[in-house]
Structures are given as structure tokens and as C-alpha cells.
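Run log, item B.
One chain of 886 residues. Sequence copied directly from the ordering sheet:
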Amino acid sequence: MHQPSENNQTPQLDTADSAERFESVFTGADAGEVRAGHHDRMLYSTDASLYQVEPIGVIIPRDQRDLREAVERCAANRIPILPRGAGTSLAGQSVNRAAIIDCSPNLRAITGLANGAAHAEPGVVLDELNESIAAQGHRLFFAPDVATSRHATIGGMIGNNSAGARSVRYGMTADHVIALDTLVIDAQGSAHPLRFEQGAGANNERIREITADVIGVIDSVADEIRARFPKIIRRADGYALDRILTQIEAARASGENPVETINLAPLLVGSEGTLAVTTGATLNLVPTPIARRLVVCAFASLDDAIGAVNPILTTNPTAVELLDDLLMSLAQDNPVQRGNVAMMPTIDGDPPAAILYVEYSAFENEGELDAALAALEAIIPEHSRRVFASQDEMTRAWALRKAGEPLLHGLPGLRKPLTFVEDTAVDPSRLPEFVKRFRAIVESHGTRAAYFAHASVGCLHIRPLLDIHSADDRDTLRAISRDITDLVVEFEGALTGEHGDGRVRSPLLEQYFGPVLMDAFAQIKAIFDPCNLCNPGNIIGGAPIESITATLRVMPGQSLVTAPETETYFDYTDQHGFDGAVEQCNGAGVCRKKQGATMCPSYMATLDERHSTRGRANALRLAITGQLNEQGASRWDDPETIETLDWCLSCKACKAECPSNVDVARLKSEYLAQRNSARGRVPLRDRLIANVRTLNKIGSIAPSIANLIAQSEATKALAERFFAIDRRRSLPPASRSLDKLIAPIIRSTASRERSVAIFADCFTMYSEPGAGIATARLLEALGYRVDLVNAGCCGRPGISVGALDIASKQIERTIEQLAPIANDPKCEAILVCEPSCLSAMIDDWRSLKLNADPTVIEQLAGMAFLPEQFIDDRWDEHPIPLETPD
């Protein structure tokens, strides 16, 4: 039997030396895309947890051959390995001083869909898997339904043993993995492809040896496993020795040899990449319900909501999820979630203190739903619940629940709901008392908590509010961690119900499991990974309690890293100051979704972490806090950060769609403006772009000649050289100016009482007047007087390139020209045909520090609409009503 040895200690490698060694090992290697630069490494130094650890390199394999080559090179050269999915770990297990292997861009094949199973590579995203299955006509799906389903990868779910809202019916990922394809590293540094499945020990000698060794360890601690592992659905601490013990006992009871029959895949699921590298998985699929209903129930107190959970469980729901009032108040301030909050039931017209999502599923006939709803009616009063039956309504309601975790990061103030004891689970029958005791511990340490998540299985995400920048609060964090661990042991629960141990809970595992089981975990680790190369330091390693607050992203070294005192161009009050804006991104990775809505266009096109909203937010945070710069270099002029920002379209989708309201476009503009200020100049290219209105106006004087010049190869070559505009793309055409083209419409409507103003933006005015003409004609038909307001530039071009001194002056002049409209009682709206210009008026004008009357700015922003938005909003109020066909 393998025994823990000196080889089982974390390799002690200096970061710089390790990075150099990594680069030398992979120079010229055909192992996919290898990134060894400091900037690229730092973009992978964080996840969705509290931590920041600089990796020694990044590998993005193109295919399975690349993946195996990368692992073999690392193993042969004793380079630690961290296979990573979407990088959204909440416990810190997806950051390490290791070579990051990012399978998410390319290893996304789905194969072998037959007999109620599918095979998926580790980079496959959960929603894409289920959509692919449905698209092939199968009424089946992979059941674990994490809140991050739009960007969570199968490899990451396997590493974490993820679950989700419906785990009360479907359990965890380990319950649905039929087989795992892996690379296992031996003591000589060789990587072996091994497939762990039922009966693998009978067919593969290497697996047989591993299985025999694992059984030996488990047999030696069987009584401890029975005594100390929790008997609940949601459990993800340590290694799943209890699942393997159950298989061993069943095999022996039936007279079989467990070495030849048991499946070690459940042991690898939830091992956080510490035992082997997953290269693929065969997954069990379950029938899709024929119908669902969602009932949202409102409660006057959190205790009332938790007290209702066990009675509700008697009605056989497929999910019971909790949200508290703190989360709903934060959602109310989020542009996307505000409408979803409005769908929720109230308590006599007042916002509830907590809500429960109760879902029912029908598998045979819809009568099952009627019976379940009737049973619920006997428990929850009618006035306190709302039933959602349509798919659209249910999707919107669930979107609020799924946004819970990142919404919490928008909480005002220095104390934030931190993820460190937020994943405990107990038997649901004991949940009311457990929460009461949990709350008492938190309050005894002088703070409070946010509550949400999986009430049906006793797994509440309870997040105490602490300021991670404060030494006192870091002490409190460790003290609460110890106290909650004792509480979980007392209630025979789990420290983690799905989010894993990682850096935040591994130091607590001996307090939770005791020394005997911890020694057994070390033996399991030595069996699979004798060189300790797989995500070292997690689960085992004996880290002291103090390590919970080491390598924090706010102090990856010994001192806090903060944004410098800066006279900013924007006002960041809405993001709790400039420091708050710099740290706003929490790594939740919602921007990594590959479909639905807009955020993030660059990531959807490239599937590259560097070009996600999170990647840019990380780059900005690291640069502004001085972590990317060579000693003595300006934190405002990091070339790699500039290159990362170049792919940002400043579309503002992140501000609208990110639950944490991260506004990368604003930070990008601020960063570029601070660079210009530090240099004492705005580059020629940016000055010309900021004054594009003038260029367009010149072109409109003789548009035919201007267009011929613009289409010439010489002009395209100059545009590419000086403006970084690819010569293959066309330049905006010049046109006769809009004022000349719509003058007849303006004259014909001059006598009308009610009016609207069309804002003459740079492109509608001089390049694409068709949109302005169509708007004018439509408003003429609706009975309005149409005015064209040629007030100047909205400042958007200058804002986008960071020429904020130029843009601010342009905006101030434009506001001065528009001010009379704000005071004209007959003018009902300012219609802006170009969406980016509207964005500047209703967003950037409000947040820039301008020498203009804030009241006028608010008035103008309140009057500004896209034409179609105005027409829709006032559908029944136009002077001439719209006629629509029956």
C-alpha cells in the first residue's frame, strides 16, 4: 500500500524561477497555446473567491493530444498542475502556484449520446450540453443545475462535485458520473490515461493496483468514515471515502471482489483536481419533466421562511430555494434584475423579508402539478404566493435567484458578504435551529449575514458581512470559521455542500474530520499523486488556520494593495468610490456566457479569458494597484493592459448585465485618460477620433469626393497605420447632412403643439441620415412637431478612447445648447438614433465631473430616448394614435 511520504509535500518553488522554468520547458512545445508572460499569468491569478495566487504559466490546449502533452511535460519536469474550468471557484481551489491548464476554449466536444448517457470533454458548458441533447430530439438532460449554468464547465463541476437548486431530487454531480477519463501521474513523473468506471479494476492492471490500495485505506478507517461523514445529500468535504465504502460493502455483500467491481469515479468527483486531470466524462442523463410550475412564497421574516421549509418538503417539490431581503434590495438596484423583483409577491403590499422558490415537476401527466399545488395551498396562504406557469415567467424568476451570489458584491459600504463559511449543509429538519445558532455566532462577532440558496437540502449560503481590508475583521473571519466548524460537527452537517474546500476550508478539515481521516486523505492523495503535482495544498497539506487569510486578492503579499489617491475624471460614488470600482469585479464569471444578451461580445467571439469582461476588470485592477508594472513604471501605462483594453467595445453591456454592476467601459476610459494625463498629451489618433464629428462634417460638404477618397487603398493604408483600423473594413460613408434632408418635414410640422427633438449625432447627421429621416417621418405621422437639434457632440468618441478633457468640453458645450429644450414644456423627448450616443447622455454625462448644472443634466437624461423606445413607452399617448392590424 502507498503511504504518505516526503513526496506528498507541496513543492517549494520560487514564483519567478518557476515561471522561467515553465517557459523553458514549454518553449517550442506543441501543447497548444502557451502563455508565460506576467500579464497573462496574473489574469489567471484569481477566481470568484477571496484569493489571488500568481500561477507559473498558462496552457490552452487545442485538443486532447495537446492536453496530454501538457500534462506529460509538467509531470516529467515536476511542474505543479491546475486544470481549470470557468475559474469561478468560491473556495479558492482554482488558483495556485501551478501551471494552469484552461480547457474551456477548445475542449468542448459532446459525443456518445446514447442509452441515456453522453460523453463530454471538460470544457463543455452545462447549458450547452443540455441544449445540444435537446436539439437532437432527446427528452433528457444532465441534472445538476448550478446557478452558473450558462458558463460552468463539466470539468469544473466534476472538480467541485457541483449540485444546484434541484439537488433534493437529483443529488450531486457524483450521482450522475458514469465514468471518468483521466490522466494519472505516477511516482516517476509519467502520465497514464486511465478510465475509471464500474469494473475497471478487472480490465486494467494500473487501475486494479490503485483500487486495491484505496480499498486498503478505506478498510482501515471504515468506522471513522461511518462516524464522521455526514448522512445528508449535500456533502463535498475531503475525499468521498463514504461513497466508496458503500460500494465496497455492497460488493462484499453480494459475494463480489470489490477490487474488480467498484467504480472509483465518485472518489475523483469533488477532489478539486488534486488526484488526477479529467480529460472527459460519461454522464448519466435523466428524463426531462413534461411540465413545471414555480411558486414564489413571501414571508414576513427569515425565520418564518426557514420554518416553512420542512412542511413544504412534504409536498414533494423538485426545488425549494431561499432569498432574503438583502438580496432583493440589491436586485432592485440592478438594471436587469429590477423587473424580476417586481414579479415577486409581497406582504400586504410591503416587500417581504424573505421568499422561497418552490418548484414542482410533472413526469407522467400535468395532474401531478395540480395535486402538488393543492398540497402547497394548505401550507402557504394565497395572498403570500404567486404561481408562475409560463416558461418566460419562470425563466425570469429563476434569473433573480441565479444572480444571488454576484449581486451581493454590489452591497454598499466596506463590509461585504464574504464567502468563507457560506456553504454549510445540515439535515433540513434541523435547519431552523442551525440557522438560529449560526446567526448567534455571527452576531456575537459584531456583524450580520446574508442568506440564500438551497433550503430544500439544508444547504444555505450564509455570508457574514466583513471588511477584508481590516486586520480586525480578518481575525474575526478566522474566529467565525472555527466556531462554525464546531457548530457543523455538532449538527452532523457538512462544511461545504458543493463549493469545495479549497484554500478557505482545507485548514479546517482536521478540526472537522479529525486526524485519523486526515491521514487517510493523505494516503489517498499519495496513491493517485505521489509527486504532489495536482493542485497541491488543497484538501490535504496541513495548512494552519492563519492561511485562510493569506494570499487574499487585496493583499497577495504582506500588505494591502489599493488604488492610488487620484483626481479622477469620473465620479465613482455609485460604486462606493474609486477603490470600490477597481475592486468591483468579484470573478463570478457571468461575462463568460457564450449566448444570451450582449455581455461580452469580445469573449463570445474569442472564448479567451483575456477578452472577457472579467479579464479586463482584472487587468485594470492589477495595473491600477501597481501589480503589473515593472518597478518605477507608471501604473497608468502598462502596455499589456492597453492591449487587453483594445478589445473592449465600450458597449456598456457589462454595466447593464453584470449582477455586480461592473462598468469596465468607465474604468477603461478613466485608465486611458489617466495615461494621457501622466504623459501630458493625447495621442494624435485619439485626438482625431475624439473630433470625428468635425471630420464627418467636412466629408458632408462633398460626400461623393469624400467617399472616393475613403475607399482608396492609400486612405485605407493610412487608416490602418495611424488609426489601427483594419484596411479590410469600410469607413463610415459621407452623406449630405441631415438638416438639409429633413427640412421639409420640419417645416410641415412647425404649427403642431406637441414636439420632439431629434438629436443630431455625428453619424446620423453626416454619415447615415436615413435613420434620422425615417424617425422624422414616423414622428410626423404620429402628430408631433419635429425639430432637429444640432447641438454638438455627445462626447462618446472621446470617452471611448480616454480623451476625457476633449470630451468633457464637447459635452459641456452640447449641454449648454440643449438646456433650453430641458425647459420647454412642449418638448416631450429628445430622440437619439445612435444607441452609443444615448448611452453617453444617460450614463456618462451623469458620472463625468462636468462644469454643468447637474439638474439640467438629469433633465436631459430623463428626456433622452431611442426612437423606438419612445414610441413604445408612449404607445397610447401619441397625438395621432397608432393603428395596428387586428
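Observations after the first pass:
- Residues 557 and 697 are 54 Å apart (CA to CA).
- The longest strand covers residues 177-185.
Flagged for discussion on Thursday.
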